Every structure is written in C-alpha cells, then in structure tokens.
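Regression test case RT-17, inverse folding.

Input:
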C-alpha cells in the first residue's frame, strides 16, 4: 500500500537503518519497533537503502526483501523513498522495479561511483536512468561517497525530466544548498532536502523543505521537534533539542576514527536503547569495548538512556 506523495516533500525523512542480526539476516522485530517509533514521533517519510542503511554492502535480494518489509509495516502512513544508487543504469533500474513491486512511492539515486564523471556524463546517466524508472525520483548528492555530485546546472536540467521530485544535498556546503533552493524556487512542486542533520535549522531558514536525518533513527522526537520549531520560527524551542542532537553527532558518530564510525556508532547506540539488534553488513563489525561504553555515556548525557 503506497501513500499519497506530497509535492514538495517536506519535513523529516530519516535514512532508515537496516536492522540486522549478527548472522546478517534482517532483524524483523527491530525493524517493526524502529518504524513504529519513527511514525509515533511524526516523521514525514522514510528513506530505506541509503548510506545509513548500509545499502552498498547488502545483496540486491536482501535489499528487495527489506523494502517489502518496510512497506508492509508502514502501511502507507508516510511516503517510502527507496535508495537505488548504482553505477549501472540496468542495476539501478532493477532495484527501482523491485521498489515499485514492494509498494514504494519514489526512488532516490546518487551519482555513479568509481569513475570520475563530467557534469554532462552525470546528466546523461540521470536521463538514461529516468527513462527506465517506474516511480518518481529524487537526486542525491553525497560526494563523500561518490566523488562526483550533480552541480547546479545539472540539477536544473534533470529537474525538467518527468518524475523528478527534487534533490537531497549532502555536500555540507550551505552556500551550494542555498543556490539549489534559489534555482528551484520557481518550481514549488520540487523539494530541496538537507543531508547533514546538524544543518537542519539552517536548511529551513534558507527556504529548504526539511532534512534526511540519520539521528532520527535513534531519537526522532529531537529532529521532528527542531523542524517544527524552525517552521514556526521559534529558536527558543529548538535550542535545547539542537543541543541534545549535537551530542549524537559529536560523540556517537565520531567515537571511532574510521569513516564507518557514523553508521557503526549509530547502530551501537540503537542497540543500547533496545531499538534493534546490532548486526552490521560485512565487512563491518559491531562496536565493542571502551568505544561502546563511551556511546552509552553519550546516550545518558543526551537524556536518551
């Protein structure tokens, strides 16, 4: 059952963690708890199979299975936007078809990884893929993972394609984000979503439509609260929530020096809160020892444990 897709998409759309057991299978009770917690907190959509969901390290069949469980649990209560990022048009289109079969509402794709690409090549990739998509799509900029990203002129060109819903920007560059908002201002049907959750307030103040906040998997009420306060123009309501959310980013995401520390720290914290099991997609492993205890203390200090 798919939900009604608002245009533009607004609010908090968490990049859904993929709850896994230690054997790599899907933790279905954990997924049920996670989604119900998110919906109770008032999130505005779900984005499974993104970076936070460890999608590049999951088999295509497990990803397809996961989407079926997500839509079954969600039951159309909010839109579900499935990640289909791949460097192959055919593989991304295959995942898009599975997303449609599962009852998702839209798909999300980033730039192809591995080979550096020009903006014309990136635009050509997006055009070729868009022709194969059975669902509307959101562009996803995350150069931290892909090397390249869709720059302003490319976004403008791709935004003209049928089915384009807008862009999620994880460059972390607020000036670039503002340029996206300004460039698409004459298209009120298109969304511009912020990736880094630390910039949620700024995104709304700049005229953006919301954010894709990984920390919402752990404490969704913080981020829905910040968003509501930003829309209402009430910084005094947002300030204590922002302070608590910053503990997540400064002490949980960065507890390990490795680049994988973000989603490994997040999953460890979620396990400590009893949300889901702590299994990771291979080759990553759960956090143990002293870093785990540091995460526990951070949760206590943030009022989450």
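Golden output:
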């Amino acid at each position: 059952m798919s939900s009604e897709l608002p245009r533009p998409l607004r609010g908090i759309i968490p990049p859904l963690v993929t709850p896994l057991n230690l054997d790599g299978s899907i933790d279905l009770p954990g997924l049920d708890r996670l989604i119900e917690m998110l919906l109770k907190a008032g999130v505005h959509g779900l984005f499974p199979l993104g970076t936070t969901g460890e999608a590049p390290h999951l088999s295509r069949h497990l990803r397809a299975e996961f989407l079926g469980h997500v839509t079954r649990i969600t039951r159309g209560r909010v839109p579900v936007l499935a990640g289909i990022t791949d460097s192959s048009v055919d593989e991304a289109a295959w995942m898009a078809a599975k997303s449609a079969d599962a009852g998702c509402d839209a798909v999300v794709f980033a730039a192809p990884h591995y080979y550096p690409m020009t903006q014309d090549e990136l635009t050509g990739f997006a055009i070729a893929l868009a022709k194969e998509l059975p669902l509307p799509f959101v562009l996803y900029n995350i150069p931290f993972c892909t090397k390249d990203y869709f720059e302003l002129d490319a976004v403008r060109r791709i935004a003209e394609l049928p089915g384009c819903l807008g862009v999620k920007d994880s460059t972390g560059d607020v000036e670039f984000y503002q340029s996206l908002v300004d460039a698409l201002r004459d298209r009120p049907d298109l969304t511009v979503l912020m990736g880094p959750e630390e910039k949620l307030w700024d995104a709304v103040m700049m005229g953006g439509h919301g954010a894709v906040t990984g920390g919402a998997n752990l404490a969704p009420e913080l981020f829905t609260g910040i968003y509501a306060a930003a829309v209402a123009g009430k910084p005094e309501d947002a300030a204590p929530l922002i302070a608590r959310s910053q503990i997540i980013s400064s002490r949980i995401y960065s507890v390990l020096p490795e680049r994988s520390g973000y989603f490994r720290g997040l999953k460890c914290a979620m396990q400590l809160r009893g949300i889901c099991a702590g299994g990771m997609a291979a080759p990553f492993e759960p956090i143990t020892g002293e870093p785990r205890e540091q995460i526990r203390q951070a949760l206590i200090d943030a009022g989450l444990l």
